[in-house]
Amino acid sequence: MEQTAPRRYNPGMTRHALDIDAVIFDMDGLMFDTERIRLDAWQMVARQEGYEIPERLLIDCIGKTTTDSEQYLNAALAHSGFDYRRARAIRGKYMREMVADGVPVKTGLDAMLDAVDSLGLAKAVATSTRRDETIDLLTRTGLIGRFDAIACGNEVANGKPAPDIVLLAAERLGVGPERCMVLEDSENGVRAAVAAGALPVVIPDIKPPGDEVLSLAHERFDSLSEAAAFVLEALGER
Q: How many C-alpha atoms does 180 have within 13 Å on its Cβ side?
């Protein structure tokens, strides 16, 4: 299906709609270019263990919590003898080797963080990734101290597209979800932001959102650099 064109900022239309106090960041695929690394690591597991994992199944897991991914992949691959917990442990080893020399950071992340700081907005991470892995990535990239709150997939009952992670991040910031902008790359993330009553902005990664999800987003940008310019223009004079 053909993608709709990105909506661009129009001061006369959106300045008053963008009345926010906080920005909530997804992590994998949004802040860090780790989704492709994760997919490659899964395929390395499959080769080692002697079965196939169709990439479409792995892409379907983008934005899902560990628990939801486990249920989904175990059901889809039961015929092959796939065991998610064993496979995930091996995948983790491969991923650690693949990022041993550094975690790839998305272009424009520093610009986005600086823009949010300059506007005096609070910042949180809301990710489907487990807390131990999240803290490890944020620590290794030197970003752990740049966020006021962190909410992770193993800390909520329901993963994205349910609103739980976004609501938890907003609660930990002490900001109502309706006053939070949520930066997301995945369809599940955008739906979670909408369900929470927050303002979703989508920056696509491996799996471009379909037209239905794009229609739910307040804005769509190709990079965090574009998103940073947007928030500075929209909020710089408030």
A: 34
